[in-house]
């Protein structure tokens, strides 16, 4: 079974700093990591390969430095990887991104499962996974918390929704987007790191992929970012100190008064 | 571009229209008025309650398109997207809005690709740009650290998902008139390679997504059995129980309770953070809440940065007194 994991390199959230005047993110000096939510997808894919054989291929679209994220995926246990990178891809929204990634998946071919993280922690859209399914005309099951069973033709999964879990049978090939509880990700091993060093990761651009130039990058994207700004920050925290009995009483009275004033109780 | 009209995707469960639909009517009505256009509520299901469909009109829709079939009883990506594509192709709306729910966030990206148009996720603000009439879609990104305004200048419909609870449900005006159209879905639209074989309902009365009030606990709760200390507050406030990542990783609460970067993003009216330190990952999942109350022993805890009321103290001292006080307030109020 061939499993493809589309993934993204994102800035380490702990290190995100904002430029106070422009309201944009300061990317310089910020460590880039594998999107934490993609680690669950990678782990599930590796476990399925370990149980059933086959191979796991990681793909990622981004600038050339994204190669380090793909190497890390190989160090975790992916068999191979491909980098999707070209200036013409830059500035793509989720529509254009899912288009190019689906072209890379077509190039790899012969897949049974495509497993994505639920969303990336920087863009936060969760749209690329279902988008890939639409471009490839595959069935999709999102928010998967458990893969119960799988055979050549289908898999049974548990989909986390607002009021419980849907149990779904999904015909393969298919796209799954997974959430944290699907699998606890492993760390890269020393042997894995050595393998990653030796593994050649090809870079695919418009020449290697069957893509229409008018669908690429910022120009090919239906959406445009017109403004970026800082959200209204730091609420006026009304603070109480409740370190003794009298303090607790006073704090709770203050809180209840506040809540009543806002019509919240 | 001759597309016209504002559409919202209403959602149902068991034939009853869900609250998110009424919230979307609030958004949709404002946009439709600014565009001098009609507001249509689209809903897929089976045997949808007649009174509920009429209520969509009373809450602001000019027209309801209810497409029904046994295969539409529950959300399934393929039939829902095929049916929505059919309706979009036939009626050509200018704007299409859905809830950022598990269904909306799956359906809309499928339709955006198939309809060759733009989609903006998880919007907290929607407006019409003066002059161009374009939809301005404002959303938080990078864990709520920035806001971005996005538009779809050349493609139609302009599509967006909207966070549940980011607006109030539209007010009902009994007797308001409109057109309710019931449509039978053509069987050719109902093919699905995903089959729903069962449903396991969660034990809790409220999920995080549909609660007005969330009581979230952090590592300060110290052990799983201490949850009984906050349970009466959850009941008294008719709240949903949330947790920081620490609490879930320690097995004190299950994953569906987790709020934050690797859990759920919530924006309730009122958020209690009890013994939550407020890591940037946790803040990312809750800082768009309307009102935040934090209780923490550490006066320097990051959670106080996003709190409206902060109590520096031990939750085990504060919560029981608060519960008592709320009970009294209820009796007298």
Explain what you see:
The complex is a heterodimer of chains A (265) and B (333). With 265 residues, chain A is an alpha/beta fold. Chain A has two domains: 2-220, HUPs (Rossmann fold); 234-265. Helices cover 31% and strands 29% of the residues of chain A. Chain A has a nine-stranded mixed sheet with strand order 11-10-9-12-8-1-6-7-13, with helices on both faces. A two-stranded antiparallel sheet of chain A has the order 2-5. A two-stranded antiparallel ribbon of chain A has the order 3-4. The longest helix of chain A is centred in the N-terminal third of the chain and has 17 residues, at 36-52. With 333 residues, chain B is of the alpha/beta class. Chain B has two domains: 6-189, HUPs (Rossmann fold); 208-332, TPP-binding domain (Rossmann fold, 3-Layer(aba) Sandwich). Chain B contains eight helices and 18 strands. Chain B has helices spanning 19-34, 50-58, 77-91, 104-114, 227-236, 245-249, 280-286, 315-332, and strands spanning 6-9, 12-13, 16-17, 39-45, 63-68, 95-99, 119-123, 125-128, 135-141, 146-151, 158-162, 179-184, 194-201, 213-217, 240-243, 270-274, 291-296, 309-313. Chain B has a seven-stranded parallel sheet with strand order 7-11-6-1-4-5-12, sandwiched between helices. In chain B, strands 15-14-16-17-18 form a five-stranded parallel sheet. In chain B, helix 5 (227-236) packs parallel to helix 8 (315-332). The radius of gyration of chain B is 21 Å and the shape is globular. In chain B, 55% of the residues are buried. The model of chain B has no long low-confidence stretch (mean pLDDT 94). Chains A and B meet through helix 3, helix 4, strand 9, strand 10 and strand 11 of A and helix 3, helix 4, strand 7, strand 9 and strand 10 of B. Strand 15 of chain A pairs parallel with strand 18 of chain B.
Largest interface: A-B, 90 and 96 residues
Report the β-strand fraction of chain B as a percent range.
25-35%
CATH class of the largest domain in chain A: Alpha Beta
The name of the CATH architecture of the largest domain in chain A is: 3-Layer(aba) Sandwich
Q: Give the SSE order of chain B as H and E letters.
A: EEEHEHEHEHEEEEEEEEHEHEHEEH
Quote the CATH topology of the largest domain in chain B: Rossmann fold
Number of strands of chain A: 15
Q: Could you give the order of the helices and strands of chain A?
A: EEEEEHEHEHEHEEEEHEHEEH
Largest sheet of chain B: 7 strands, parallel
Total individual domains of chain B = 2
- The CATH homologous superfamily of the largest domain in chain B corresponds to HUPs
Q: What CATH architecture of the largest domain in chain B do you see?
A: 3-Layer(aba) Sandwich
